């Protein structure tokens, strides 16, 4: 079944997103181009073999998104990225890399340099990798929608604290849920996907070193990437961050990243406290790791002493988990539309009416600190 039959219905009336494919492999360019042009709302307007050719194409053509390989002759993706963004600052660049540790590390670095996203090449090659094609189309479509949006208006004044409903553009009204308790949380859980590495960096660097609660993070990423994400988070946050290990006890002040390919859960240990459990069950919401299993597990054991935060990302992973968090008396925050790369995951939670607050990215860290201290937002 083509990606169009899965995700593209009802999009034919939109102006297509204009894409340039940059890869030194003619075979890879052909596969990526055919994959994207199966979609009625995506049009490949250029296909070139290196960064120098990409620079010339961006100068003379209208291009919304660049699918950019990392390793190329003459000018590779890492060197081409800042020059492409200098020519067109609003360009969305999706990096395509191998799953090697080196390329995964470069992919994370490019997002700090301004890349919008990344897609990892499967080890078996692109030809038979349906999951690669689905992910590529989804991310091109998500960032293409962002590129096609009208310029954002200045944020409106925050409504008074008594208000319970805010409007999110033409979408359904966003309802703010009220927490059942103001108990100081014993654990903090964060879920994110598209745009998540940058958002996580912003949130974690704004946390006071004295914050003692363990922080559990599920970011939609494959293996190799999650280990490197943990290294990056250690640098950004100034606190220890690592991939979760099965049976590891939760320690105050540490950051635990769900490893690619495993769901991260918790369970009580006989000696007191909690230990981590890695679950190899099926994907949820087409994701593994997924946010929902983490939140369900944490809510079951921490109940009202849990704070859940949903950051930028496609889809609605985290919605059911946050509903469980709220039912158990915990608290939920979500990133707002304006500061999200994709307002899918936080938008789903916000529009379900289970968020205590819907906040711009730069205010989420301070809000976590106040809640962690047992204060109101």
Report what the structure shows.
The protein has 377 residues and is of the alpha/beta class. It has helices at residues 3-7, 26-37, 51-60, 77-87, 101-113, 130-148, 196-205, 225-237, 291-302, 319-327, 345-351, 361-372; strands at 17-22, 42-48, 65-69, 92-97, 117-120, 165-166, 174-175, 187-192, 215-219, 241-243, 255-257, 263-268, 274-279, 306-310, 331-335, 357-359. The strands form four sheets. Strands 10-11-9-8-14-15-16 form a seven-stranded parallel sheet, sandwiched between helices. A five-stranded parallel sheet has the order 2-1-3-4-5, sandwiched between helices. The chain has a two-stranded antiparallel sheet with strand order 6-7. Helix 5 (101-113) links the parallel strand 4 (92-97) and strand 5 (117-120). The longest helix has 19 residues, at 130-148. The termini are far apart.
């Amino acid at each position: 079944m083509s990606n169009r039959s899965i995700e593209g219905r009802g999009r034919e009336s939109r102006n297509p997103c204009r894409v340039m494919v940059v890869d030194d492999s003619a075979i890879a360019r052909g596969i990526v181009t055919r994959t994207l042009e199966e979609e009625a709302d995506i049009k490949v307007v250029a296909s070139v073999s290196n960064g120098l050719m990409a620079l010339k194409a961006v100068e003379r053509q209208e291009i919304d998104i660049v699918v950019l390989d990392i390793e190329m002759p003459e000018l590779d993706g890492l060197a081409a990225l800042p020059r492409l963004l200098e020519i067109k600052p609003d360009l969305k660049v999706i990096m395509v890399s191998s799953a090697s540790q080196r390329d995964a590390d470069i992919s994370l670095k490019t997002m700090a340099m301004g890349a919008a996203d990344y897609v990892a090449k499967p080890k078996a090659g692109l030809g038979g990798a349906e999951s690669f094609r689905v992910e590529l189309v989804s991310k091109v479509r998500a960032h293409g929608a962002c590129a096609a949006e009208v310029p954002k208006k200045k944020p409106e004044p925050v409504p008074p604290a008594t208000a319970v409903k805010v409007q999110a553009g033409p979408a359904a009204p966003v309802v703010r849920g009220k927490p059942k308790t103001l108990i100081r949380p014993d654990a903090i859980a964060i879920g994110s996907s598209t745009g998540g590495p940058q958002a996580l960096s912003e949130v974690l660097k704004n946390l006071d070193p004295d914050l003692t609660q363990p922080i559990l993070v599920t970011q939609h990423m494959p293996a190799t990437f999650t280990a490197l994400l943990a290294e990056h988070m250690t640098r950004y946050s100034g606190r220890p961050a690592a991939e979760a290990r099965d049976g590891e006890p939760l320690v105050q002040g540490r950051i635990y990243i769900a490893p690619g390919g495993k769901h991260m859960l918790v369970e009580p240990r006989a000696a007191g406290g909690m230990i981590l459990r890695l679950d190899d069950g099926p994907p949820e919401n087409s994701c593994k790791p997924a946010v929902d299993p983490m939140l369900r597990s944490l809510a079951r054991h921490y109940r009202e002493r849990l704070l859940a935060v949903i950051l930028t990302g496609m889809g609605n992973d985290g919605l059911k988990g946050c509903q469980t968090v709220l039912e158990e008396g915990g608290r939920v925050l979500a990133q707002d539309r304006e500061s999200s790369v994709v307002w899918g995951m936080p938008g789903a939670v916000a529009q379900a009416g289970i968020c205590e607050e819907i906040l711009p990215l730069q205010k989420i860290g301070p809000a976590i600190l106040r809640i962690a201290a047992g204060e109101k937002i």
